[in-house]
């Protein structure tokens, strides 16, 4: 049985997460465990969905119906990461400013969405992982 479709998104998630941790650690000049999560370069979400779309494109061809479904899903996730989740982060920042002096308040996470560069980097990571899987793990 061919498990490439099952573990390629996991590999893309891991690669993007490792890159994000490394980049954040270099920027912070310390191990950046507190910066793991949503937001940042590269986008994990973009890497995951683009890895699947790219792998389907490489293995089945761009004319395969599954490729169309994967591209559609990728667009939805990427648009969500760039618009809706980014707006949620902006709202969280405004709420945090409004409630800064409130006692016993929980700070909302402000870093939620992605910039276009973060998304582009995630797409490149996803395509790179899919290409590596395609060339290193031929069909069984």
From TrEMBL:
Entry annotated with the keyword Glycosyltransferase: no
Lineage per the UniProt record: Bacteria, Pseudomonadati, Pseudomonadota, Gammaproteobacteria, Methylococcales
Keywords, sorted A to Z: Membrane, Transmembrane, Transmembrane helix
PANTHER family (UniProt xref): ACID PHOSPHATASE/VANADIUM-DEPENDENT HALOPEROXIDASE-RELATED PROTEIN (PTHR31446), ACID PHOSPHATASE_VANADIUM-DEPENDENT HALOPEROXIDASE-RELATED PROTEIN (PTHR31446:SF39)
Protein name: Divergent PAP2 family protein
TM region(s), chain numbering: 6-23, 35-58, 64-81, 119-137
Pfam families per the UniProt record, alphabetical: DUF212
């Amino acid at each position: 049985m061919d498990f490439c479709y099952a573990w390629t998104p996991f590999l893309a998630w891991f690669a993007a997460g490792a890159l994000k941790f490394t980049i954040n650690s270099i920027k912070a000049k310390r191990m950046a465990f507190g910066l793991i999560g949503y937001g940042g370069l590269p986008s994990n979400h973009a890497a995951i969905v683009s890895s699947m779309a790219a792998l389907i494109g490489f293995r089945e061809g761009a004319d395969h119906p599954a490729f169309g479904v994967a591209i559609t899903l990728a667009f939805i996730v990427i648009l969500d990461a760039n618009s809706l989740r980014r707006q949620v982060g902006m709202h969280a920042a405004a709420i945090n400013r409004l409630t800064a002096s409130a006692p016993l308040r929980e700070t909302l996470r402000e870093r939620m969405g992605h910039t276009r560069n973060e998304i582009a980097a995630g797409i490149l990571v996803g395509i790179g992982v899919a290409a590596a899987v395609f060339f290193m793990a031929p069909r069984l």
